[in-house]
Amino acid sequence: MIKLDYGNISVNKVGATHGLNLEQVFKDSEGRIRDIVSQMYAEKDQAGGWKRWLNLGYDQALADELNAYAQSVKGRFSDMVILGIGGSSLGGYALLRALLHPYWNQLSDAQRQGFPRYYFVENVDGDQINPLMEMLDPQRTLFVVISKSGTTAETMSAFMIAKDWLERKLPPEKVKEHIVAITDAKTGVLRPVADKEQYQTFEVPDDVGGRFSVFCAVGLLPAVLCGVSLAEIQNGIRDLDKVLQNPDLQQNPAAQGALIQYSLYERDKRISVFMPYSFRLASVSDWYVQLWAESLGKKTDLQGNTVHVGPTPVRAVGVTDQHSQVQLFNEGPFDKVFTFVSVGKPAQDIQIPANQFSDIEDLNYLNGKPMSQLMQAEFDSTRASITANQRPNMTLHLPQVDAYHVAQLLYLLEVQTAIAGALMGIDPFDQPGVELAKKYTYALMGRKGYENLVAEARGEKSAIGV
Ligand code: PA5
User: Fold this and answer.
1) Catalytic residues, which ones?
2) Which domain holds residue 105?
3) CA distances from 10 to 26, 265, 339 (A)
4) Is residue 47 assigned to a domain?
5) Is residue 245 within 8 Å of residue 37, measured between CB atoms?
6) What spacing in Å lies between the alpha carbon of 89 and ligand 1's midpoint?
7) Poorest-confidence range of 137-146, 184-193, 264-273?
8) Candidate of 50, 82, 149 to mutate for ligand 1, largest count of ligand atoms within 8 Å of Cβ
9) Which residue has the higher pLDDT, 239 or 187?
10) Residue 430 belongs to a domain
Protein backbone atom coordinates (compact mmCIF):
# COMPACT_ATOMS: atom_id res chain seq x y z
CA MET A 1 0.00 0.00 0.00
CA ILE A 2 1.14 3.57 -0.66
CA LYS A 3 2.24 5.40 2.52
CA LEU A 4 2.64 9.06 3.44
CA ASP A 5 5.50 10.20 5.64
CA TYR A 6 4.97 13.76 6.84
CA GLY A 7 7.56 13.84 9.65
CA ASN A 8 9.63 16.52 7.91
CA ILE A 9 6.79 19.00 8.14
CA SER A 10 7.06 19.29 11.90
CA VAL A 11 8.73 22.09 13.86
CA ASN A 12 11.11 19.48 15.29
CA LYS A 13 12.53 18.86 11.86
CA VAL A 14 12.37 22.21 10.05
CA GLY A 15 12.04 24.67 12.92
CA ALA A 16 9.22 26.77 14.30
CA THR A 17 9.34 29.45 11.59
CA HIS A 18 8.76 27.10 8.67
CA GLY A 19 7.35 23.94 10.17
CA LEU A 20 3.98 23.08 11.62
CA ASN A 21 3.13 22.10 15.13
CA LEU A 22 1.50 19.01 13.73
CA GLU A 23 -0.15 17.86 16.91
CA GLN A 24 -1.87 21.21 17.28
CA VAL A 25 -2.78 21.56 13.60
CA PHE A 26 -4.26 18.06 13.53
CA LYS A 27 -6.15 18.65 16.77
CA ASP A 28 -7.58 21.96 15.53
CA SER A 29 -8.75 20.48 12.23
CA GLU A 30 -9.92 16.99 13.17
CA GLY A 31 -13.58 17.97 13.22
CA ARG A 32 -13.41 19.90 9.97
CA ILE A 33 -11.70 17.04 8.19
CA ARG A 34 -14.23 14.58 9.58
CA ASP A 35 -17.05 16.72 8.09
CA ILE A 36 -15.30 17.20 4.74
CA VAL A 37 -14.46 13.52 4.20
CA SER A 38 -17.86 12.29 5.39
CA GLN A 39 -19.68 14.79 3.19
CA MET A 40 -17.50 14.07 0.16
CA TYR A 41 -18.23 10.35 0.28
CA ALA A 42 -21.89 10.94 1.12
CA GLU A 43 -22.17 13.01 -2.07
CA LYS A 44 -20.34 10.59 -4.35
CA ASP A 45 -23.50 9.62 -6.24
CA GLN A 46 -25.17 13.00 -6.13
CA ALA A 47 -26.06 14.47 -9.53
CA GLY A 48 -24.35 17.80 -10.12
CA GLY A 49 -21.81 17.25 -7.33
CA TRP A 50 -18.93 16.23 -9.67
CA LYS A 51 -17.79 13.49 -7.30
CA ARG A 52 -18.67 10.38 -9.26
CA TRP A 53 -14.97 9.81 -9.94
CA LEU A 54 -14.95 8.35 -6.42
CA ASN A 55 -16.91 5.38 -7.83
CA LEU A 56 -14.71 4.53 -10.80
CA GLY A 57 -12.52 1.99 -8.99
CA TYR A 58 -15.63 -0.10 -8.36
CA ASP A 59 -17.02 0.00 -11.91
CA GLN A 60 -16.73 -3.61 -13.05
CA ALA A 61 -19.01 -2.98 -16.05
CA LEU A 62 -16.59 -0.32 -17.28
CA ALA A 63 -13.62 -2.68 -16.95
CA ASP A 64 -15.53 -5.46 -18.74
CA GLU A 65 -16.55 -3.16 -21.58
CA LEU A 66 -13.00 -1.84 -22.08
CA ASN A 67 -11.44 -5.29 -21.82
CA ALA A 68 -13.89 -6.65 -24.40
CA TYR A 69 -13.08 -3.91 -26.90
CA ALA A 70 -9.32 -4.28 -26.30
CA GLN A 71 -9.62 -8.03 -26.87
CA SER A 72 -11.60 -7.48 -30.08
CA VAL A 73 -8.89 -5.29 -31.64
CA LYS A 74 -5.82 -7.06 -30.21
CA GLY A 75 -3.11 -7.26 -32.88
CA ARG A 76 -5.15 -5.17 -35.33
CA PHE A 77 -3.30 -1.84 -34.89
CA SER A 78 0.40 -1.07 -34.77
CA ASP A 79 -0.13 2.55 -33.73
CA MET A 80 -2.60 4.38 -31.52
CA VAL A 81 -2.96 8.15 -31.58
CA ILE A 82 -4.74 9.78 -28.67
CA LEU A 83 -6.29 13.14 -29.47
CA GLY A 84 -7.12 15.09 -26.32
CA ILE A 85 -5.87 17.85 -24.05
CA GLY A 86 -5.68 18.67 -20.33
CA GLY A 87 -7.67 16.18 -18.28
CA SER A 88 -8.46 14.29 -21.48
CA SER A 89 -4.82 13.39 -22.07
CA LEU A 90 -2.49 13.91 -19.09
CA GLY A 91 -3.81 11.00 -17.00
CA GLY A 92 -3.60 8.44 -19.80
CA TYR A 93 -0.10 9.61 -20.67
CA ALA A 94 1.02 9.42 -17.03
CA LEU A 95 -0.33 5.85 -16.79
CA LEU A 96 1.34 4.67 -19.99
CA ARG A 97 4.68 6.31 -19.18
CA ALA A 98 4.62 4.72 -15.74
CA LEU A 99 3.43 1.24 -16.65
CA LEU A 100 4.86 0.36 -20.05
CA HIS A 101 8.44 -0.28 -21.08
CA PRO A 102 10.08 3.19 -21.00
CA TYR A 103 11.05 2.86 -24.69
CA TRP A 104 7.82 1.15 -25.73
CA ASN A 105 7.52 2.80 -29.14
CA GLN A 106 11.01 1.63 -30.10
CA LEU A 107 10.20 -2.02 -29.38
CA SER A 108 9.37 -4.40 -32.22
CA ASP A 109 5.81 -5.67 -32.73
CA ALA A 110 6.84 -8.98 -31.18
CA GLN A 111 8.41 -7.28 -28.16
CA ARG A 112 5.20 -5.27 -27.69
CA GLN A 113 3.27 -8.54 -27.99
CA GLY A 114 1.06 -7.07 -30.68
CA PHE A 115 0.02 -4.06 -28.62
CA PRO A 116 0.26 -0.70 -30.44
CA ARG A 117 2.79 2.08 -30.13
CA TYR A 118 1.18 5.20 -28.64
CA TYR A 119 1.28 8.90 -29.42
CA PHE A 120 -0.51 11.72 -27.64
CA VAL A 121 -1.43 14.74 -29.77
CA GLU A 122 -2.24 17.59 -27.39
CA ASN A 123 -1.04 20.63 -29.27
CA VAL A 124 -2.24 22.51 -32.32
CA ASP A 125 1.12 22.50 -33.96
CA GLY A 126 1.78 21.23 -37.46
CA ASP A 127 5.26 20.39 -36.23
CA GLN A 128 3.73 17.77 -33.97
CA ILE A 129 1.00 16.44 -36.26
CA ASN A 130 2.59 16.40 -39.74
CA PRO A 131 5.68 14.38 -38.91
CA LEU A 132 3.54 11.93 -36.98
CA MET A 133 1.08 11.38 -39.83
CA GLU A 134 3.97 10.87 -42.21
CA MET A 135 5.16 7.96 -40.09
CA LEU A 136 1.80 6.25 -39.69
CA ASP A 137 0.27 3.48 -41.79
CA PRO A 138 -3.45 4.30 -42.10
CA GLN A 139 -4.34 0.60 -42.38
CA ARG A 140 -2.78 -0.05 -38.97
CA THR A 141 -3.58 3.15 -37.05
CA LEU A 142 -6.30 3.72 -34.47
CA PHE A 143 -7.30 7.23 -33.42
CA VAL A 144 -8.83 7.68 -29.97
CA VAL A 145 -10.48 11.09 -29.77
CA ILE A 146 -11.19 12.15 -26.19
CA SER A 147 -13.29 15.20 -25.40
CA LYS A 148 -16.03 15.37 -22.80
CA SER A 149 -17.45 18.55 -24.31
CA GLY A 150 -16.62 17.79 -27.93
CA THR A 151 -16.06 21.51 -28.46
CA THR A 152 -12.41 21.74 -27.48
CA ALA A 153 -10.73 23.47 -30.42
CA GLU A 154 -7.35 21.76 -29.95
CA THR A 155 -8.79 18.26 -29.90
CA MET A 156 -11.47 18.73 -32.52
CA SER A 157 -9.14 20.40 -35.03
CA ALA A 158 -6.72 17.48 -34.70
CA PHE A 159 -9.63 15.07 -35.05
CA MET A 160 -10.79 16.81 -38.24
CA ILE A 161 -7.29 16.39 -39.66
CA ALA A 162 -7.14 12.72 -38.63
CA LYS A 163 -10.60 11.92 -40.01
CA ASP A 164 -9.84 13.64 -43.30
CA TRP A 165 -6.53 11.72 -43.53
CA LEU A 166 -8.27 8.41 -42.95
CA GLU A 167 -10.97 9.29 -45.49
CA ARG A 168 -8.33 9.99 -48.10
CA LYS A 169 -6.37 6.83 -47.39
CA LEU A 170 -8.99 4.17 -46.70
CA PRO A 171 -12.17 2.87 -48.37
CA PRO A 172 -15.15 4.85 -46.93
CA GLU A 173 -16.66 1.88 -45.10
CA LYS A 174 -13.38 1.22 -43.28
CA VAL A 175 -12.85 4.66 -41.72
CA LYS A 176 -15.08 4.10 -38.71
CA GLU A 177 -13.07 1.05 -37.64
CA HIS A 178 -10.10 3.35 -37.06
CA ILE A 179 -11.82 5.83 -34.74
CA VAL A 180 -12.91 5.51 -31.13
CA ALA A 181 -14.61 8.45 -29.42
CA ILE A 182 -14.66 9.00 -25.66
CA THR A 183 -17.13 11.70 -24.77
CA ASP A 184 -20.13 12.66 -22.68
CA ALA A 185 -22.96 10.12 -22.77
CA LYS A 186 -25.61 12.59 -23.91
CA THR A 187 -24.45 16.17 -24.27
CA GLY A 188 -21.76 17.80 -26.38
CA VAL A 189 -20.89 17.94 -30.03
CA LEU A 190 -18.90 14.74 -30.41
CA ARG A 191 -21.64 12.36 -29.26
CA PRO A 192 -24.03 12.96 -32.20
CA VAL A 193 -21.12 12.88 -34.66
CA ALA A 194 -19.94 9.56 -33.24
CA ASP A 195 -23.43 8.09 -33.29
CA LYS A 196 -24.05 9.21 -36.87
CA GLU A 197 -20.71 7.85 -38.10
CA GLN A 198 -21.12 4.66 -36.03
CA TYR A 199 -17.83 4.96 -34.18
CA GLN A 200 -17.05 2.75 -31.25
CA THR A 201 -17.70 5.02 -28.25
CA PHE A 202 -17.07 5.08 -24.52
CA GLU A 203 -18.48 7.48 -21.98
CA VAL A 204 -17.00 10.13 -19.80
CA PRO A 205 -19.60 9.53 -17.08
CA ASP A 206 -21.83 12.29 -15.76
CA ASP A 207 -20.25 14.25 -12.95
CA VAL A 208 -16.71 13.17 -13.78
CA GLY A 209 -14.68 16.21 -14.79
CA GLY A 210 -11.61 16.10 -17.05
CA ARG A 211 -8.84 16.13 -14.47
CA PHE A 212 -10.63 13.55 -12.31
CA SER A 213 -11.30 11.25 -15.28
CA VAL A 214 -8.14 9.13 -15.43
CA PHE A 215 -9.95 6.05 -14.07
CA CYS A 216 -12.78 6.06 -16.61
CA ALA A 217 -12.28 5.24 -20.31
CA VAL A 218 -10.27 8.47 -20.70
CA GLY A 219 -7.21 6.97 -19.00
CA LEU A 220 -8.13 3.30 -18.95
CA LEU A 221 -8.77 2.76 -22.67
CA PRO A 222 -5.28 3.82 -23.79
CA ALA A 223 -3.89 1.69 -20.93
CA VAL A 224 -5.84 -1.48 -21.69
CA LEU A 225 -5.18 -1.17 -25.43
CA CYS A 226 -1.48 -1.42 -24.52
CA GLY A 227 -2.02 -4.44 -22.28
CA VAL A 228 -2.20 -2.82 -18.83
CA SER A 229 -4.32 -4.80 -16.35
CA LEU A 230 -7.48 -2.91 -15.39
CA ALA A 231 -8.10 -5.39 -12.59
CA GLU A 232 -4.82 -4.37 -10.93
CA ILE A 233 -5.68 -0.69 -11.29
CA GLN A 234 -9.13 -1.12 -9.81
CA ASN A 235 -7.82 -3.38 -6.99
CA GLY A 236 -5.28 -0.69 -6.08
CA ILE A 237 -7.96 1.99 -5.95
CA ARG A 238 -10.41 -0.12 -3.96
CA ASP A 239 -7.84 -1.15 -1.36
CA LEU A 240 -6.74 2.43 -0.85
CA ASP A 241 -10.27 3.76 -0.89
CA LYS A 242 -11.04 1.79 2.29
CA VAL A 243 -8.39 3.93 3.97
CA LEU A 244 -9.37 7.22 2.35
CA GLN A 245 -13.03 6.86 3.27
CA ASN A 246 -12.01 7.03 6.91
CA PRO A 247 -12.93 10.51 8.21
CA ASP A 248 -10.41 10.14 11.05
CA LEU A 249 -7.57 12.51 10.17
CA GLN A 250 -5.03 10.33 12.00
CA GLN A 251 -5.81 7.44 9.63
CA ASN A 252 -6.31 9.18 6.30
CA PRO A 253 -3.18 10.09 4.26
CA ALA A 254 -5.08 12.10 1.64
CA ALA A 255 -6.63 14.24 4.38
CA GLN A 256 -3.26 14.63 6.08
CA GLY A 257 -1.59 15.71 2.83
CA ALA A 258 -4.40 18.16 2.05
CA LEU A 259 -4.39 19.67 5.53
CA ILE A 260 -0.62 20.05 5.57
CA GLN A 261 -0.58 21.70 2.14
CA TYR A 262 -3.44 23.99 3.12
CA SER A 263 -1.91 24.94 6.49
CA LEU A 264 1.42 25.77 4.87
CA TYR A 265 -0.31 27.72 2.09
CA GLU A 266 -1.95 29.78 4.83
CA ARG A 267 1.55 30.41 6.21
CA ASP A 268 2.66 31.81 2.88
CA LYS A 269 4.19 28.65 1.41
CA ARG A 270 2.36 29.14 -1.83
CA ILE A 271 4.35 26.82 -4.06
CA SER A 272 3.78 23.07 -4.09
CA VAL A 273 6.67 21.10 -5.57
CA PHE A 274 6.00 17.53 -6.72
CA MET A 275 9.14 15.46 -7.19
CA PRO A 276 9.02 11.73 -7.83
CA TYR A 277 12.33 9.89 -7.70
CA SER A 278 11.55 7.76 -10.72
CA PHE A 279 12.02 8.05 -14.47
CA ARG A 280 8.74 6.21 -14.99
CA LEU A 281 6.79 8.67 -12.84
CA ALA A 282 8.03 11.84 -14.56
CA SER A 283 4.69 12.41 -16.28
CA VAL A 284 2.78 12.01 -13.03
CA SER A 285 4.35 15.38 -12.18
CA ASP A 286 2.68 16.94 -15.25
CA TRP A 287 -0.63 15.38 -14.32
CA TYR A 288 -0.28 16.63 -10.73
CA VAL A 289 0.44 20.16 -11.95
CA GLN A 290 -2.80 20.29 -13.92
CA LEU A 291 -4.83 18.65 -11.16
CA TRP A 292 -3.56 21.00 -8.48
CA ALA A 293 -3.56 24.20 -10.59
CA GLU A 294 -6.90 23.90 -12.36
CA SER A 295 -8.67 22.59 -9.27
CA LEU A 296 -7.37 25.02 -6.67
CA GLY A 297 -6.55 28.23 -8.53
CA LYS A 298 -9.81 30.17 -8.12
CA LYS A 299 -11.06 33.74 -8.06
CA THR A 300 -14.22 33.15 -6.00
CA ASP A 301 -15.02 31.03 -2.98
CA LEU A 302 -18.19 29.02 -2.46
CA GLN A 303 -19.92 32.06 -0.97
CA GLY A 304 -19.12 34.16 -4.03
CA ASN A 305 -16.42 36.28 -2.35
CA THR A 306 -13.44 37.30 -4.45
CA VAL A 307 -10.49 35.43 -2.94
CA HIS A 308 -7.91 34.78 -5.69
CA VAL A 309 -6.46 31.67 -4.08
CA GLY A 310 -4.36 28.75 -5.26
CA PRO A 311 -0.99 27.20 -4.64
CA THR A 312 1.35 27.16 -7.63
CA PRO A 313 2.38 23.59 -8.48
CA VAL A 314 5.90 22.97 -9.71
CA ARG A 315 6.98 19.91 -11.65
CA ALA A 316 10.25 18.32 -10.71
CA VAL A 317 11.83 14.91 -11.22
CA GLY A 318 14.45 13.25 -9.08
CA VAL A 319 17.36 12.92 -9.56
CA THR A 320 17.34 15.02 -12.73
CA ASP A 321 16.27 18.25 -11.04
CA GLN A 322 19.00 18.03 -8.45
CA HIS A 323 21.14 19.64 -11.14
CA SER A 324 18.49 22.17 -12.07
CA GLN A 325 16.01 23.34 -9.45
CA VAL A 326 17.39 22.00 -6.16
CA GLN A 327 19.72 24.99 -5.75
CA LEU A 328 16.61 27.20 -5.68
CA PHE A 329 14.72 24.74 -3.49
CA ASN A 330 17.48 24.74 -0.86
CA GLU A 331 18.48 28.38 -0.85
CA GLY A 332 15.70 30.39 -2.47
CA PRO A 333 12.65 31.89 -0.76
CA PHE A 334 10.89 29.93 1.98
CA ASP A 335 7.72 29.73 -0.09
CA LYS A 336 7.54 26.03 -0.94
CA VAL A 337 6.21 22.75 0.37
CA PHE A 338 7.62 19.58 -1.17
CA THR A 339 6.04 16.24 -1.98
CA PHE A 340 8.60 13.61 -2.86
CA VAL A 341 7.69 10.20 -4.19
CA SER A 342 10.13 7.44 -3.38
CA VAL A 343 10.00 3.99 -4.96
CA GLY A 344 10.95 0.90 -2.94
CA LYS A 345 12.08 -1.28 -5.80
CA PRO A 346 12.70 -0.32 -9.46
CA ALA A 347 11.24 -2.67 -12.06
CA GLN A 348 14.76 -3.16 -13.36
CA ASP A 349 17.99 -2.52 -11.53
CA ILE A 350 21.44 -2.30 -13.07
CA GLN A 351 24.84 -2.70 -11.52
CA ILE A 352 27.64 -0.20 -12.01
CA PRO A 353 30.62 -2.29 -13.17
CA ALA A 354 33.18 -3.04 -10.49
CA ASN A 355 36.20 -2.86 -12.77
CA GLN A 356 35.92 0.66 -14.21
CA PHE A 357 38.14 3.50 -12.93
CA SER A 358 39.00 1.51 -9.81
CA ASP A 359 42.28 3.43 -9.61
CA ILE A 360 40.49 6.84 -9.50
CA GLU A 361 39.58 7.50 -5.91
CA ASP A 362 37.01 10.15 -6.79
CA LEU A 363 34.99 7.53 -8.69
CA ASN A 364 35.78 4.15 -7.18
CA TYR A 365 33.14 4.49 -4.44
CA LEU A 366 30.63 3.79 -7.23
CA ASN A 367 32.23 0.49 -8.25
CA GLY A 368 30.00 -2.53 -8.07
CA LYS A 369 27.03 -0.69 -6.56
CA PRO A 370 23.50 -1.05 -7.99
CA MET A 371 21.98 2.10 -9.54
CA SER A 372 19.05 1.70 -7.13
CA GLN A 373 21.46 2.26 -4.23
CA LEU A 374 22.71 5.47 -5.83
CA MET A 375 19.13 6.60 -6.50
CA GLN A 376 18.18 5.89 -2.88
CA ALA A 377 21.26 7.67 -1.55
CA GLU A 378 20.59 10.70 -3.75
CA PHE A 379 16.96 10.81 -2.66
CA ASP A 380 17.85 10.46 1.03
CA SER A 381 20.53 13.11 0.83
CA THR A 382 18.50 15.61 -1.16
CA ARG A 383 15.58 15.20 1.21
CA ALA A 384 17.95 15.57 4.16
CA SER A 385 19.41 18.76 2.67
CA ILE A 386 15.94 20.19 2.02
CA THR A 387 15.02 19.39 5.63
CA ALA A 388 18.30 20.80 6.98
CA ASN A 389 17.54 23.97 5.06
CA GLN A 390 14.20 24.20 6.91
CA ARG A 391 11.99 23.42 3.93
CA PRO A 392 8.89 21.41 4.96
CA ASN A 393 8.55 18.22 2.96
CA MET A 394 6.51 15.02 2.77
CA THR A 395 7.19 11.71 1.05
CA LEU A 396 4.81 9.30 -0.58
CA HIS A 397 6.35 5.82 -0.49
CA LEU A 398 5.45 3.56 -3.38
CA PRO A 399 6.64 -0.05 -2.91
CA GLN A 400 7.03 -0.36 -6.68
CA VAL A 401 5.91 1.22 -9.94
CA ASP A 402 3.15 -1.13 -11.05
CA ALA A 403 -0.51 -0.75 -11.98
CA TYR A 404 -1.73 -1.41 -8.43
CA HIS A 405 0.48 1.22 -6.78
CA VAL A 406 0.47 3.85 -9.54
CA ALA A 407 -3.34 3.78 -9.40
CA GLN A 408 -3.08 4.37 -5.65
CA LEU A 409 -0.72 7.29 -6.18
CA LEU A 410 -3.05 9.03 -8.64
CA TYR A 411 -6.16 8.28 -6.62
CA LEU A 412 -4.64 9.55 -3.39
CA LEU A 413 -3.67 12.79 -5.14
CA GLU A 414 -7.21 13.19 -6.51
CA VAL A 415 -8.77 12.76 -3.07
CA GLN A 416 -6.14 15.06 -1.54
CA THR A 417 -7.00 17.74 -4.12
CA ALA A 418 -10.73 17.48 -3.44
CA ILE A 419 -10.14 17.81 0.32
CA ALA A 420 -7.73 20.73 -0.19
CA GLY A 421 -10.42 22.46 -2.26
CA ALA A 422 -12.93 22.01 0.54
CA LEU A 423 -10.45 23.40 3.09
CA MET A 424 -9.87 26.41 0.87
CA GLY A 425 -13.62 26.90 0.55
CA ILE A 426 -13.59 26.81 -3.24
CA ASP A 427 -15.06 24.54 -5.91
CA PRO A 428 -12.22 22.28 -7.10
CA PHE A 429 -14.30 20.82 -9.92
CA ASP A 430 -14.88 23.88 -12.12
CA GLN A 431 -12.48 25.91 -14.29
CA PRO A 432 -14.08 29.27 -15.13
CA GLY A 433 -10.66 30.87 -15.51
CA VAL A 434 -9.99 29.18 -18.84
CA GLU A 435 -13.19 30.45 -20.45
CA LEU A 436 -12.14 33.99 -21.39
CA ALA A 437 -9.14 32.89 -23.44
CA LYS A 438 -11.33 30.28 -25.14
CA LYS A 439 -13.84 32.99 -26.10
CA TYR A 440 -11.05 35.23 -27.41
CA THR A 441 -9.80 32.31 -29.52
CA TYR A 442 -13.28 31.82 -30.94
CA ALA A 443 -13.39 35.55 -31.76
CA LEU A 444 -10.00 35.49 -33.47
CA MET A 445 -10.91 32.36 -35.42
CA GLY A 446 -14.20 33.87 -36.64
CA ARG A 447 -16.68 31.74 -34.69
CA LYS A 448 -20.21 33.09 -35.06
CA GLY A 449 -21.49 34.98 -32.02
CA TYR A 450 -18.06 36.12 -30.78
CA GLU A 451 -17.59 39.13 -33.10
CA ASN A 452 -17.87 41.64 -30.24
CA LEU A 453 -14.75 40.19 -28.57
CA VAL A 454 -12.42 40.58 -31.56
CA ALA A 455 -11.03 43.99 -30.55
CA GLU A 456 -10.41 42.85 -26.97
CA ALA A 457 -8.79 39.64 -28.16
CA ARG A 458 -6.47 41.61 -30.44
CA GLY A 459 -5.56 43.90 -27.56
CA GLU A 460 -7.02 46.90 -29.40
CA LYS A 461 -9.59 47.50 -26.68
CA SER A 462 -9.05 47.15 -22.96
CA ALA A 463 -11.09 44.41 -21.34
CA ILE A 464 -11.06 46.29 -18.00
CA GLY A 465 -12.19 49.58 -19.51
CA VAL A 466 -8.99 51.58 -18.75
O1 PA5 B 1 -9.69 19.13 -16.35
C2 PA5 B 1 -10.47 19.63 -17.15
O3 PA5 B 1 -11.70 19.70 -16.96
C4 PA5 B 1 -9.93 20.21 -18.43
O5 PA5 B 1 -8.55 20.19 -18.44
C6 PA5 B 1 -10.46 19.41 -19.64
O7 PA5 B 1 -10.09 18.06 -19.49
C8 PA5 B 1 -9.91 19.96 -20.96
O9 PA5 B 1 -10.24 21.31 -21.08
C10 PA5 B 1 -10.43 19.18 -22.13
O11 PA5 B 1 -11.83 19.23 -22.15
P12 PA5 B 1 -12.68 18.28 -23.07
O13 PA5 B 1 -12.55 16.89 -22.55
O14 PA5 B 1 -14.09 18.78 -22.96
O15 PA5 B 1 -12.15 18.39 -24.46
Assistant:
1) 294, 323, 438
2) 52-231
3) 11, 15, 14
4) no
5) yes
6) 9
7) 184-193
8) 149
9) 239
10) no
